[in-house]
Design a protein that fits this description.
The protein is mostly helical and 104 residues long. The chain is 83% helix and 0% strand. It contains four helices and no strands.
Length: 104
């Protein structure tokens, strides 16, 4: 159940990042406030994973960050047609490698 909290937290973080992008630097206050609410929910779920389910903070934070990074890249491409430079793809490989090493 703790892993599910981390994944859901990462998904909320992705949507918070997308809402923040949509807010255009908080010029559209509705999207900006939604981003704040979503990031609060993301941290709440992350705290549940650590405090209620006993997942160690470094592991939880790393997994949460990985879901957030990969999801934000996919969301930015899908919704805003933003693409990565070659170094960005290298970074994604590093993130996936890091998560794989956590499982070792």
């Amino acid at each position: 159940m703790g892993f599910l909290c981390i994944v859901l937290s990462g998904i909320l973080d992705v949507f918070a990042n997308l809402a923040l992008q949509k807010s255009n630097g908080f010029r559209d206050i509705k999207w900006g406030l939604l981003a704040l609410v979503l990031v609060d929910g993301a941290f709440l779920l992350l705290s549940f994973a650590v405090s209620w389910y006993g997942i160690k903070l470094p592991i939880a934070y790393t997994l949460w960050g990985a879901v957030g990074v990969l999801g934000s890249v996919a969301g930015a491409y899908y919704f805003f047609r933003q693409s990565l430079k070659p170094i960005g793809y290298f970074g994604i490989v590093l993130v996936i490698t890091a998560v794989g090493l956590l499982q070792a």
